[in-house]
Amino acid sequence: MAATTPSPSNSDLQEGSGGGAASLFDEALARYQSGAAPEELIDDFLAITAQSPRQAAGWTCLAWLQLLLDQPRAALRSARTAVRLNPQDPQARINLSLALLETGGSGVREHIELVQRVMLMAPELADELRASMADGLERRPGWGAMAKVRGWLEG
Which pairs from 115-118 meet CB under 8 Å and 24+ separation? Predict the structure, then answer.
């Protein structure tokens, strides 16, 4: 979860969540960005998604942490929920692609192609996504699925 991994927006958080989930989200995201381990944050994001199940950013973050913790089946469920709630979020699509690759699922190409289009049209967002992928490879060295996705997006 680099700056936008999983690209949360305050409007996502405010919708139907009250202030509590938003502040817990902001705190947990800040801890991640300060270097907290995924193991230390997973319970927070499980609580956030339980409190605000229609908050796409929470599901995107949860899927990312589950991927970092090598929990691809759980990540697949979380990433599918994130994409269903916010189909335009490229980070949610990257997470879903990773989970599909790690579980042997199909349909990766459609998600990668959508992210490629977003990266072409929004260079600032492309930079954030690159930072997110670099963060993932730093936190989970040797992550084959991420190397593959990064190659497709950068190639």
Answer: 115/90, 115/153, 116/152, 116/153, 118/88, 118/90
Tens of pLDDT along the chain (155 residues) come to: 643 444 343 333 434 334 566 789 999 999 999 999 999 999 999 999 999 999 999 999 999 999 999 999 999 999 999 999 999 999 999 999 999 999 999 999 999 999 999 999 999 999 999 999 999 999 999 999 999 999 999 97
Domains, the chain, ordered by start: 10-154 (1.25.40.10)
Cα dist from 120 to 2, 113, 117, whole Å: 20, 11, 5
